[in-house]
Design goal:
alpha+beta
Length: 604
């Protein structure tokens, strides 16, 4: 009896790792893999190659039995032996196939072999009951193996009365064990030719339908295609945007004009440069508190003694009230009058060494103002100025005999004349600003010197020289003059200048609020004001942006620059593409925004 080759049944979803694990648990060296059609193992030829490599490592001679033509092709390419179901009519032997074990349910399989292919009989009464390998009936043996889509049906019909007794030996492989069993011989009326190997009933574990896997694969593929299309649409049509700022060419325009204002003028005339004037009379009453900036030194005065050098060769009289001693901008007075100051003589005329005995006694001095800066070290030279003698430092001077000390610094705030003048000018400016703000609400402008200030009265709560840290000042006055409407002035200026500009240019003021208006003359009696007006602006070229976006579709930045800069009225172009990785303009004109930019210098 030939040795049976064990078989391993493969589920639809088993991958290479699961099959290798089952091969490791198989003790036999030769193994047959029974694979259903369209199982996962045949989804890619690489699976068979990996399995062949692992089988060679384990030292297994693995053969493949399958009805899947693509699987047979992949297995043959990977180097597996291909097994086929026997088709010979004179073959009655069966290959031993090992049962498949499931983790959920124990599955049994049996293979029955018979050495004599011509006389095979089964005894009905002996095998009516199920044995360990399946159920065999008298009239029919119906074995159906469901492993995926692989089904094998074997029928044995028309078994009549036994012609002779026959001992049948069954070899049953059950769960890896071989069991021999004797069956009583029966006479057979008809021989049964076994045409192909059959398998006993095998229960297979439930698997997912292949149709479900196909549906999921199709769904995933569809979603991937939709997502790819959405990304392409987003990247090439939705996200790309372009912003183009076009700056027109411009020319500076500066004009100085004399414009006359009078209530008698009814309308602006750009040819005669006349403008209607509006009489105004406004009263101002304003007061405020100011800080005293004047300072008075009230610190202690420094004092000390000096020796006076008299090289006039004659006695001198120096009175304290008419003599000033000074050094570095600091002044000192004599504490007492000096009478008959002897001349100073030299002990050695060549070396100019002074005879100390010829010097007068030390004379006291005191600083005119208090403060620490009046302190002096001993030996400091001090110049002397007398109303009678004058200032002759080469003949009359002094040196400090001791340190001049005792000066301390302390100031008191007092109202100075500068404080009063500053307070008055500040109140006048604030009052005039209040009047102009009130006129601005009606669109009127009051130019400098186009008014007079009548009945001005300024008062302070303390006079000049008062010792106080602050004071309150007030001002009342009446403002009379001629104002004009801001819009009328702007219209007159633009009309006047536009007379000299070409039609393809537009005049723009540099800053309308900074146009200078100053009265050249003001005749209050005749209500006439002549204004000096200084205007600064730019003549900007007009640019037609209609239908410009379609010309830029799909162009690069350099091409767009070349297209726009070719127009004579364009000075420069700023381009922003989004997203940043974009190198070309969008494919739709609606995604291109072209605007006219304003030069920064124009708005300064």
């Amino acid at each position: 009896m030939a040795t049976a080759v064990p078989s391993i049944y493969i589920n639809l979803e088993d991958d290479v790792s699961k099959i290798v694990t089952r091969l490791k648990h198989q003790s036999a060296r030769q193994v047959v893999l029974v694979c259903p059609k369209r199982c996962f193992l045949f989804s890619d030829s690489i699976n068979l190659r990996l399995l062949k490599k692992q089988a060679d490592i384990l030292g297994k001679e693995v053969s493949v039995l399958t009805m899947d033509e693509k699987g047979q092709l992949y297995a043959k390419e990977a180097g597996f032996d291909i097994k086929f179901l026997s088709k010979s009519p004179n073959t009655s032997s069966f290959s031993d196939i090992k049962k498949l074990h499931s983790p959920e349910k124990k599955i049994e399989s049996a293979v029955i072999t018979k050495s004599d292919p011509l006389n095979l009989a089964l005894v009905s009464e002996s095998v009516k009951k199920p044995n360990q390998s399946g159920l065999i009936s008298q009239n029919k043996i119906h074995t159906q193996v469901k492993t995926g889509h692989l089904q094998t049906k074997i029928f044995a019909d028309k078994i009549s009365s036994a012609k002779k007794a026959l001992n049948v030996s069954n070899t049953i492989e059950h769960s890896g064990r071989v069991i021999s069993k004797s069956v009583p011989a029966l006479a057979l009326t008809e021989a049964v030719n076994v045409t192909e190997t059959f398998f006993a009933p095998v229960e297979r574990p439930a698997v997912f339908p292949e149709e479900g896997k196909s549906y999921i694969a199709k769904t995933v593929t569809g979603l991937f295609v939709v997502l790819s299309v959405a990304v392409l649409v987003l990247v090439y049509f939705v996200l790309p945007k372009a912003t183009v700022v076009v700056y027109p060419k411009s020319e500076p325009v500066t004009r100085d004009m004399e414009i006359s204002l009078s209530p008698s003028i009814k309308s602006a005339d750009p040819v005669k440069l006349t403008l209607p004037g509006i009489k105004i009379e406004e009263s101002i009453n304003i007061s405020d508190k100011f800080s005293s900036q004047g300072k008075k030194q009230v610190g202690n005065k420094s004092s000390g003694t000096v020796k006076i050098y008299n090289f006039t060769k004659a006695p001198l009289n120096l009175k304290a009230g008419t003599t000033i001693l000074s050094v570095g901008g600091r002044s000192y007075n004599l504490t007492d009058d000096i009478s008959g100051l002897k001349p100073t003589v030299y002990k050695n005329s060549q070396t100019k060494e002074v005879d100390v005995s010829s010097l007068a006694e030390s004379v006291g001095i005191v600083a005119v103002q208090g403060g620490e800066d009046s302190n002096l070290p001993a030996g400091t030279r001090v110049e002397i100025a007398n109303q009678v003698f004058g200032s002759r430092p080469q003949f009359l001077y002094a040196k400090t005999d001791t340190e001049i000390t005792g000066g301390t610094t302390r100031y008191l705030s007092v109202i100075s004349q500068d404080d009063v003048n500053l307070a008055k000018s500040t109140l006048e400016a604030r009052g005039l600003e209040q009047v102009r703000q009130k006129l601005a609400q009606s669109g009127l402008i009051l130019a400098d010197k186009a008014f007079i200030e009548d009945s001005a009265q300024f008062a302070s709560d303390n006079p000049t020289g008062t010792q106080t840290p602050s004071f309150t000042a007030s001002l009342s006055a009446k403002i009379s003059g001629l104002a004009f409407k801001k819009e009328d002035m702007a219209t007159l200026i633009f009309q006047r200048i536009n007379q000299t500009l070409s039609s393809n240019k537009t005049l723009e003021a540099k800053n309308p609020d900074q146009t200078d208006y100053k009265a050249k003359s003001f005749d209050q009696a005749n209500s006439l004001v002549v204004l000096n007006v200084h205007f600064e602006g730019q003549a900007v070229y007009n640019i037609d942006l209609k239908n410009i976006a379609p010309e830029l579709v799909g162009k690069t930045q350099s091409e767009v620059n070349e297209i726009l800069r070719s127009k004579a009225e364009i000075d420069r172009v700023d381009i922003i593409l989004a997203p940043a990785w974009q190198t070309k303009f969008p494919k739709f004109a609606s995604k291109i925004n072209v605007t006219i930019g304003k030069d920064v210098a124009l708005s300064e």
